Amino acid sequence: MLDLIKKIRSIHVMVVVVLLLIGTVIKFSPWQNAGKSGKLIAWDVTSYYAYLPATFIEKDIRLTFVEKDSTFYHEHQMYWPETAPNGSKVIKTTMGLSFLYSPFFFVADAIDDDSSKARGFSETFEFWLVISSLFFTILGAIFLRSFLLKHFTDHVVSLTLISIYFGTNLFYYITVEPLMPHAYNFFLISLFLYFTDRWHNCSTFRNSLVIGLTLGLITLIRPVNGVVLLFFLTYQLEGITKFKNRLKLFYEKLPLLLVISLAAMLMLLPQLIYWKSLTGQFIYNSYSGEQFFFTNPHIIDGLFSYRKGWLLYTPIMIFGLIGLGLSIKNRISSLIVLVPTVYIMFSWWNWWYGGSFGCRPIIDFYPILAIGLGSLLSKALETKWSKFSTLSIFGLLICFNLFQTLQKKSDAIHWESMTKEAYWHNFLHRYPQPGYQEKLHHPDIEKAKQGFDEY
User: Where is average pLDDT lowest: 5-14, 95-104, 136-145?
Assistant: First the structure.
């Protein structure tokens, strides 16, 4: 059996993974809730998406049309703008995700018979946006596989892909809430890792341009994700001698580093122009009343709590973290990204990130953690006993993740109010059990915004 697993080719595994993901999306058909409770274009996605219908359907990026019937737009979760000090209506999130939505939005706009009524929020639009998520999921799998093959054997890459796509909450954000940014960011960071490796082996103008544009788009979707630049700067850095050589390399390649910088700025320019035209400022904080509390990070809660602990709801990533310690060449570059990312992530006032399954912002960095999984699997497959035990554990954790995905979809795992009592009350139950609601503890939003514990 183990020898058979070793013969499986990663290209075949990738195709099967993609087909299973597509099949699951078709089974769930999340776009069918358009215009109803549970629709995809809602909450955060409303803001990520708002740039497109406002610009190309309403022809009014200033959102003055919202003021004519603000109750209608608010109740239907179509636009939730913030009001700037000068009175302008500003879309809360940055526009990066709209760039990736846009080709599929234009297809939907061209074929939707109900566009004049739904104004860009019909089932047709949701369907084509789901197609966009699947499209970038496929690209993410292609580039992640290509990157991992530069570091691991083909069968290790196969097992890593299976673990990432089915053993983590990435599966949930591809199949249940596909319009959230995580599948898109997963693709972009996979692309960034792939071209980082190419650049360090072949520093060309083309590779520099792609890295810069990708870095800019990563930052435009979620500004704090720009920390991934550190991976490029420290890629395969092993010691002080390599550090000196790296500085020498960057000095020699200064023109190409300038290309990277200018390309990244080019991607950010539309956002700066948008903010300047509406608020009078090139840099505008649209998250009024929300902030980071860097002196009171909730790192332990973010990693282990029943409310939203990353490693509780995605335990397979414990092995990803362990594996990073085994990755000699990529240990520094991975940890120098992940350590500040975790600190910043859990310093946000809403460290549990609202309604979500597990810790969702860390999903963006799973391509880096795939290095850790690959390193651990490489070591584990060296002996027959460790092969069997590791594959058994991984198999159980993948099944556990898939079951918890169904629990979350059925509300047996609450989106933000889980407690120890509630978790174990529904443990291994697909649907919520009687008495479950009484065991939940809803967060105190106002306390959290002031930097206090949400309990």
Answer: 5-14
- Please report, for the chain, the start and end positions of each structural domain, with discontinuous segments joined by +: 2-282
Produce one character per residue of 365-389: b if its CB has 16 or more CB atoms within 10 Å, e if not. Answer: bbbbbbbbbbbbbbebbeeeeebee
**Which DSSP letter does residue 292 get?**
B
Q: Is 330 exposed, middle or buried (0-12, 13-18, 19+ CB in 10 A)?
A: buried
What lies within 8 Å, CB to CB, of 198 at 6+ separation is 207
In this structure, what token pair is assigned to residue 433? 């059990």
CA dihedral defined by 207, 211, 214, 220, rounded to 10 degrees?
-150
Q: Does the pLDDT of residue 367 top 70, yes or no?
A: yes
Interaxial angle between packed helices 123-148 and 96-111, expressed in degrees from 0 to 180 and rounded to the nearest 10? 130
Query: Nearest Cα to 314, choosing from 360, 364, 377?
Result: 360
Average pLDDT, the chain: 95
Please tell me whether residue 357 adopts helix, strand or coil conformation. coil
CA distance linking residue 256 with residue 252, whole number of Å: 9
3-state SS class at 285: coil
- Other beta carbons less than 10 A from residue 410's beta carbon: 13
Place of tokens 């071209």: 195
Strands 89-90 and 82-83: antiparallel
In which region does residue 411 sit, left (phi positive, over 0), alpha (psi from -120 to 50) or beta (all else)? left
| Token representation of residue 166 | 């089915």
Residue at token pair 């990435």:
170
63: left (phi over 0), alpha (psi -120 to 50) or beta: left
Write the pLDDT tens digit of every residue in 396-446.
999 999 999 999 999 999 999 999 999 999 999 999 999 999 999 999 999
- For 329, counting Cβ atoms within 10 Å of its Cβ (0-12 exposed, 13-18 middle, 19+ buried), the class is middle
* 113 contact partners, CB below 8 Å, separation of at least 6: none
CA 18 to chain centroid: 18
Distance of alpha carbon 86 from alpha carbon 95, whole angstroms: 21
Among 212, 168, 163, which residue's Cα sits nearest to residue 191? Answer: 212
Q: How many CB atoms lie within 10 A of CB 226?
A: 15
Spatial neighbors of 117 by CB under 8 A, at least 6 apart, are none
What local confidence, expressed as pLDDT, does residue 444 receive? 97
For the chain, the first-to-last Cα distance in angstroms comes to: 49
What stretch of H or E contains 89? Answer: strand 89-90
> What token pair was written down for 215?
């870095």
Instruction: Using the structure block, give the residue that is written with the tokens 């850095």.
Output: 237
Helices (H) and strands (E) in the chain, counts: 23, 2
Please, which residues bridge with residue 82 across strands?
A: 90
